[in-house]
Structures
1.
Amino acid sequence: LDAIERFNKNKYFKADFIIAGPLESNEMQYKDKIFNSTNHNNNIIYLGNINDVKNLFNKIDIFVLPSNREGISRSLLEAMSMERLVIGSNKPGIKNVINNNKDWFIFNDYKSYSLYKSFIKIYSLESADIKKITTNARLNIENNYRYDLVNSVYKKLLE
């Protein structure tokens, strides 16, 4: 929310932000801040828990996973497979899936300024760069994280 607020203060940038997912018990301290932000900013929407992520991903350009303990996130895999730009926290699993050397895709955990800088860098990308990045992201998912590939690894481990 701090990164979004900083971004919104910059008169050169305009973007809408959607926050999705339920608040877990250890995140309740953010509840008031989320609702205050959504009430005071027309470009921030909190959806809560959603069941149709494909529909949501069809409406967004960038997916941000600010998790501190997600690992290999299914939502991250789905966003990349749908050719969305992604930004993730610097955690094992997340940074392995994103798998690139561009510092704007990974931000330092608990550092809202780092996430803000990622917003700015991605916002300034050219269309051709976005297409190349998102196409490569989809290929990464197809080649390394398809269900049949992952399931075959699990099956071998269990055998």
2.
Amino acid sequence: FFSSRRRHTRLQGDWSSDVCSSDLTTIMQVGFIGLGTMGASFASNLQSKGGHQIIVHDISQQAAKMHLDAGATWAETPKALGAQCDVVLTSLPGPPEVRTVATDEHTGLLAGMKPGSVFFDLSTNSPTVVREIHAKFAEKGVHMLDAPVSGGPKGAKSGRCAIWVGGDKDVFEANRGPLDTMGDAVRYIGPIGAGSIAKLVHNSAGYAIQCAIGEIFSAGVKAGVDPLSLFEAIRMGARGRTRTFDSLADHYLINDYDPPDFALKLAHKDVSLAAEMARDAGVPARIIELTRAEMTEALNRDWGHRDSRSFMLLQQERAGILIDVDKEKVEAALKAD
């Protein structure tokens, strides 16, 4: 496979590595498809920060104007783009668009990409679809990896975003250069589909948290607290001062709920009081009530003396798994940031 960390030189139509000559041109040809809100910034960073020669394609050629003005080359189809590139990146709305761009038998990337070339899909995609596409590309000797991005439009523009990669680790390491140009937290997650799984867990958890906050925040406002004052209060509380997912390291990941930092019976009391407050204010609180029900089930297991997060074991039981990570490895992951 081609490496973004090595020098590749085109000589009489063939590729040879690490050839040094003033008469030869060092090339790293990168293709980019999907120049929407996120993709446009990614492609611009590849040009301005990475200094990559890029070939671009989008459903609308007008979307590529600023990239073409900056020296990019236009490709009429994904197939035409793939035929010219060592590494191809796509940033598309979802699974249907990725499948079409990647595998359409007449115009898709697979019809054009050379064996040994690499395809990173930056889209938020289905792990099932990613694995299907990966298998089809593997039949032709083309490497496909899923590499979804978290950071939003601002992160895409600034380069402050996470990119989670699933696929062959050696291929990732050898061709990660364009990804490092686009994001400041590029990380290999695991086999094909792992990046997409991480992205879906992250996004859905975030929206669920927003849903819960929206629910109980509305109850707090209706119960009599000014919205700004309530915001200022909760953002300085223990949860507000902690990175959203860091608390998983305390008890959940290491499967150690004894002794507790805060007992489940006390947490159950707090959630019950919040549910009662919402009821008294005439505000439905479905998520808070569901949380109380989960905690009540854990209390009925005689877990009231255990850490407040012990009720999360119930879902592991339903899923048929047990999460039990070595404490030193968890601590190392926290220090890695």
3.
Amino acid sequence: MRKSGLAALAKWTVATAVVASLLIPSVAGAHSATIAPGRIRGVVTAATKAGRAYRAKLESRAAGLGLLGSGSTNLVYNGGPVMHSDANYAIYWEPSGYSTSSTYKNIVNGYFSNVGAASGATTNNYSVATQYYDGTGKIAYSASNGGSAVDTNAFPASGCVSLSGPCITDAQLQTELSKVVTAKGWPHGMNTMYFVYFPPNVTTCTDATGAECSGNVYCAYHSSVGSGSSTLLYANMPYDGVSGCESGQAPNGDTGADSELNVTSHENIEALTDPLGTAWYDASGQEIGDKCNFTFGSALGGASGAQYNEQISSGNYYLQEEWSNAEIGRAHV
């Protein structure tokens, strides 16, 4: 187990010890002594006043159930399915007037290609997930880059109360995701993961109240819609080149893209181990990435501001650690 060398993030790491206790607390089959992840899962909270307040609320809730401090415990299997392989798709929702650069997209798309090319390797964070399982066996590090698309459909009317500018609710995101998947003829099911990336100056919120939104409270989350063969697994990926969500290092020379890949790895590996909120999490509802949120371990190389701690195929990345039950702690490989 390697601990983070970034002292500035130490308090953030401790504070996120109960982050994944989420918005809808009950999931069938979960242990009665745990807080199960809800519809919105694997929330990467922002290092902001609102993000800290959100964490404090979750901590208070866990403390009331006698679970505060359980963040040091291992993940527990709760009976649900895992992803045994994953085809990863990137959707960039960018109507006229809103965009990310081609460099940004190339870095993100290249990441998914490298994750796929390195399938089966034991030298990066994805291999940590292979110790976890469901009733049909262990997770295999078997990834692929399914493809990408730029969605130029106009944003819907703001679904969020009292917020100016484009503001997309989780329900609106689900609707658009379904449209794109149908139009592209892309697959549904438990071996496919969709990442919906938003450009700068666009807010996303968990619901219409506007109480829990990107940049202010969170940097990303994952969820699902549908069931059985119609399931769509997805991650909400707001633009993270903003204060509170940046990783602090940009080995690929693009702060937005490099920071986005840190939370992309968080949500990707959490979806592998807990796609429906019914598989692997600890007593306070934390998933594999939540327990190591913004804990990066030692750098392998790179100049200050451009350090990397993961080499995945031909790419260098700066990614958080993941929780290893085998090591009873954070693992960075």
